[in-house]
Amino acid sequence: MSSSRYLFTSESVSMGHPDKVADQISDAVLDFCLQHDPTSRVACETLVTTDHCTVAGEITTKAPLSDEAVKRLAKDAIREIGYTDPKIGFAADTCVVQNLLHSQSPDISVGVDTGGAGDQGMMFGFACDETRTLMPLPIYLSHRLVERHAQLRRDGTIKFLRPDAKSQVTVEYNGDGTPGRIHTVVFSTQHDETAMDGNRKFKADARQQLIDDLILPTLKAERPDLIKGEIIYHINPTGCFLEGGPHGDCGLTGRKIIVDTYGGRGRHGGGAFSGKDPTKVDRSAAYMARYIAKNIVAARLARQCEVQLSYAIGYPDPLSVWVSTNGTVAPGVTEDQLVDLIRKHFQLTPKGIIETLDLRRPIYRETARHGHFGRELPAFTWEKTDKAESLRAAAGV
Length: 397
Hints:
The chain is an alpha+beta fold. The protein is built from eleven helices and eleven strands.
């Protein structure tokens, strides 16, 4: 470890961010299919722009996924997110939904039907002891900020908020890699006209309300010990965020993969999650890699752990299993030993992953906002630490 202090930054985006709107619609379609047919094969992509939504991709399912159902699912998701006012250029009742879904290629189905992976690729999972959920602190706090944004917008506590927002947290770390203090917070939120002054700039009192009611309560609830000295704030730094959402910026499924994972602290295999059923290892194996890494850290076999799994299309077993603890492995334990423990204690075929984590349920729309990891919800089975005790016993420490 370095003896020098350093800064690390991660960002998150709100449920109303255009790319997250697209993710939630894709996962709403996935959940509908799984609800009616748990064996559905789904690869659903969404594009949203000014009062327009295109849903496309490949789906094989016994679910009643009619054109009417697809359009209803998209509009219901848009409405639930909070886009209900036609004046802002994107709203559930005025949005035109185009359905371009079609059947999945039979060439892919051949390999998947026999238990093989739905695609090639490598997937990563990460965990560390910086937070109670074993997530890196910057991305964890960034998620909690946009989560609170949604809460305060929906309950009317801050009346000028609109659904589109972004957060960013910079943490100053000690030389040993432990968090030292919260250094900088950037928060941008779409707002209505009431938050603007006579010069069409974001009002100073609106800025202060975001700090007092949204940002500081979130930081104090999670890590009050790291609020030391003056925090630097950049609130709506352009001065105005009146035009936003899909009207201000086109949104696409799968464009926030670093937000979805570890905020840049861990590697990313490159495959997006949303809109994909669990036979796609881009999603399911990334969930399993997180489950593995989290259990290793929970077992105190390492202070941080990164796991890579890799697959070939149509082939069930992983081609490789790799572990890095960045020098934090427990005394008497090696990374090679951790690889052996992973192979012995976790089912790593697509079928084994799906069964272990119970992934054929309609649980995915909730993952598409506020982070796939670090949220201890009953449906998020990959966040369990039920293997920690057996791993520690097997390691003999």
